[in-house]
Every structure is written in C-alpha cells, then in structure tokens.
C-alpha cells in the first residue's frame, strides 16, 4: 500500500475499554491510502449516535443488525493495515464485509477532476473511499427521520428510539446499542414516536418500510438505480431518501442527492460563485463527473468552500411539546 493512513479529526472523549483477546479478529491491507474517519463518518448520525463511536485511542466502533444477528465492530489502523474485532452473532458477517465497508470495491481514481477546487480537494484527501455496508434498513430508517427537519431533531429522534427500543450491543462496547429489528420498529407505539419528535408521516413511512424489510434488504444485491426504484415504491420514500440510502448501503459513486436544502447552493457557490443554484444548475455543474457525481459532491463538501449564511436556520418544531 502506498502512503499512510490520513489522520482523522479527534473525536469527543469517550470511555475506551480493552479489547477481549478472544474476540474474532481480522487484519486487512487496503489497496491504497485510507482515512478511516472519512470513510466511516457518513455512517454516524450525530455526535451521540448510539450505534457509532470514535474513541480517543483512534478506534472506530459501530453496531449493526446483520442477516446473522446483532454484532459490534471495532476498527483501528495498525501501520498500513486495518485491524478489526467483532462480537455477537453477526461478528463473522461483519468481519467478512470489512473490506467493502472500508471501500475495497470503490475506485477513487475513476474521478477525473474538471475543476481546480475538486482537484485540490482530491489531492488533499487521498484516503477518501466510499463505504458500502450491504445493509439497507439501518441506513433507510435514520434517513427517513431526517426528512424535512433539522439534523439536530433527526439525530435526537434516532438516539431516543434506538436507546429505547434497541438492545445493548454485544462485546466491550462503550455504551453502544444495536438498532431494533423490523418487527420491533413495527411495534413502536404512537406516543413513543411523538415523544421522539417524529410526526405521523415519517413514522408511517418507517412502519411501511419495516413491513417489507426483507424485500428491502434484498436490494443490497441490486445495482444502485434498481435499488432506488424499489425503495421508492414505498409511499413516503422519494429520490432524496433513496439516494441518501444507497450512498451508504451500496457505496454508489454516482448517486448525487437532489431535493436537499443546502447541497445545490454549496456546489454552485464552490464551482461558480452562485449560491442560488438549484437542483438543475447543480446537476449541470456535476454533469462532467457522470458516473462519479456523488464522489465529486463529497470532495466539494470536504473542500470547505461554502457560502456564508444569510438566512436563519430551519426553525425547530418539536411535536412532542405541541
């Protein structure tokens, strides 16, 4: 492997526990530079996500409900290799999927920069790879929670619901939980959704998805566009939600998000200085990156060139207090 691991931003302090020597483990050598923080951070839903943790010792923890059951995964960089330990019934599944999770199937070199800013961002972030979890529901549900609300509200709802209805993660995990299974999601009472600040529309969409969870998980084996089409058959799931999902579940390099409140303005401002760009203008600007538009958008976001704020943030309306 050429290069070394890129340093990830230091996470907030959290309790780190020693790894059990008997835990199933795996070492893997990435095919190129790899920044664990850049690859895995899109899976985190806020700094207090109960399914994800980055600890001061440089480890990244995440939990999943795999086809074989719940599991916990701890990932660290060891020289030019990655070392992972796993716990729970889903441990073997998580270790088998480690390379895909860390972007082994991704090809960063497929993007040819057409703008100086993109070229500079690509050069500064050689460890960026697109994750592929191979799991759909664990990404779809928090994405539905993010529909039409502030990220803080969505993160709070995710945190409350997972802690209340999920289960403690297996292994020496630093206070982590595994998200509920599909049946448990379908049994969440209406007042619990209300208490978490989730309106009836989003709650109903999650319930519809939970009822066909098996069919949705099958889409992990489909091309991203086919997976998106199946997801959008569910009322309440549109292009924004399906795209945000396959970006993570499938590692889809061309799945650019449309319908986002901020992304068009950020892309327009970064590439042309036009902070008023809409989805059409954004897609025109990203057209030279066909096949790699999601990667191009991520590099633009990582460049840090964003328009100065001129409007108030979306107002928070907590339905639990209405």
Topology:
Blueprint: E1 25-28, H1 36-40, E2 52-54, E3 60-66, E4 69-78, E5 81-87, H2 91-96, H3 98-101, H4 116-124, H5 137-145, H6 151-165, E6 167-168, E7 177-178, H7 182-186, H8 190-195, H9 200-211, H10 213-218, H11 224-231, H12 239-249, H13 263-272, H14 279-286, H15 293-303
Helix pairs in contact: 4-15, 5-9, 5-12, 11-12, 13-14
Question: What's this, in brief?
Answer:
The chain has 322 residues and is an alpha+beta fold.
Description:
This protein has a single domain (25-255), classed as Hypothetical protein, domain 2 (Endonuclease III, domain 1, Orthogonal Bundle). α4 (116-124) crosses α15, α5 (137-145) runs antiparallel to α9 (200-211) and α13 crosses α14 (279-286). 44% of the residues are buried. It has helices at 36-40, 91-96, 98-101, 116-124, 137-145, 151-165, 182-186, 190-195, 200-211, 213-218, 224-231, 239-249, 263-272, 279-286, 293-303, and strands at 25-28, 52-54, 60-66, 69-78, 81-87, 167-168, 177-178. Mean pLDDT is 92; it is low at 1-17. The protein is 39% helix and 11% strand. It has 322 residues and is an alpha+beta fold.
State the low-pLDDT regions, or none: 1-17
Number of strands: 7
**Total number of domains:** 1
Topology order in helix (H) and strand (E) letters:
EHEEEEHHHHHEEHHHHHHHHH
Radius of gyration: 19 Å
Rounded mean pLDDT is: 92
CATH class: Mainly Alpha
Number of helices: 15
Helix content: 25-40%
Shape: globular
Strand order of the largest sheet: 1-5-4-3-2
What's the CATH architecture name? Orthogonal Bundle
The CATH topology turns out to be Endonuclease III, domain 1
Supply the helix-strand structural class: alpha+beta
CATH superfamily: Hypothetical protein, domain 2
Distance between the termini: 56 Å
Q: What percent strand? A: 5-15%
Largest sheet: 5 strands, antiparallel
């Amino acid at each position: 492997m050429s290069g070394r691991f890129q340093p990830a931003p230091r996470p907030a302090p959290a309790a780190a526990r020693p790894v059990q020597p008997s835990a199933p483990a795996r070492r893997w050598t990435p095919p190129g530079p790899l920044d664990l923080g850049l690859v895995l951070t899109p899976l985190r839903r806020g700094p207090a996500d109960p399914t994800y943790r980055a600890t001061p010792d440089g480890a990244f923890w995440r939990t999943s409900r795999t086809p074989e059951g719940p599991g916990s995964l701890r990932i660290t960089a060891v020289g030019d290799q990655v070392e992972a330990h796993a716990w729970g019934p889903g441990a073997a599944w998580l270790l088998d999927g480690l390379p895909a999770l860390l972007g082994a199937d991704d090809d960063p070199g497929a993007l040819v920069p057409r703008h100086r800013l993109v070229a500079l961002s690509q050069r500064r972030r050689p460890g960026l790879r697109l994750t592929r979890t191979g799991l759909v529901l664990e990404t779809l549900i928090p994405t539905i929670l993010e529909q039409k609300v502030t990220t803080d509200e969505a993160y709070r709802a995710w945190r409350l619901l997972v802690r209340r209805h999920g289960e403690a993660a297996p292994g020496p995990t630093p206070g982590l939980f595994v998200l509920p299974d599909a049946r448990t999601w379908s049994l969440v009472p209406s007042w619990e959704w209300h208490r978490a600040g989730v309106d009836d529309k989003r709650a109903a969409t999650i319930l519809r998805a939970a009822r066909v969870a098996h069919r949705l998980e099958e889409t992990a084996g489909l091309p991203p566009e086919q997976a998106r089409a199946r997801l959008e058959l569910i009322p309440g799931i549109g292009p924004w939600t399906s795209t945000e999902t396959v970006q993570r579940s499938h590692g889809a390099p061309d799945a650019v998000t449309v319908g986002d409140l901020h992304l068009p303005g950020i892309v327009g401002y970064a590439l042309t200085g036009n902070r008023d760009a809409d989805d059409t203008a954004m897609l025109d600007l990203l057209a030279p990156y066909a096949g790699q538009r999601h990667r191009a958008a991520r590099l633009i976001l990582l460049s840090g060139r964003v328009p100065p704020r001129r409007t108030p943030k979306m107002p928070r309306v907590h339905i639990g207090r209405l």
